[in-house]
Amino acid sequence: MVRKIFLNDKVIYVEQYKEEEVQGFKKIAVSFKVTSEAYHDIATLLYEEVFDVAVPEKKAGIPGENSDLLYFDNKSL
């Protein structure tokens, strides 16, 4: 089970992880909690649009493009 990912060397501890192949590309979806203290840094990171994604448990690292990442669920904050 994937418990953490890295976005541009920033560790993100995830609660849910889903991976699928879409038109020859790897797509991942994650759910994670963000504290109010870390919210600005995480939001700034996600708005960069292009970043490196590493999934240590899968021994995978890929360049990523932020296309469907910005979904916020207030219940998980």
From TrEMBL:
Pfam families, sorted: DUF3219
InterPro entries documented for this protein: DUF3219, YkvR-like_sf
Protein name per the record: DUF3219 family protein
Species this protein is from: Tigheibacillus halophilus
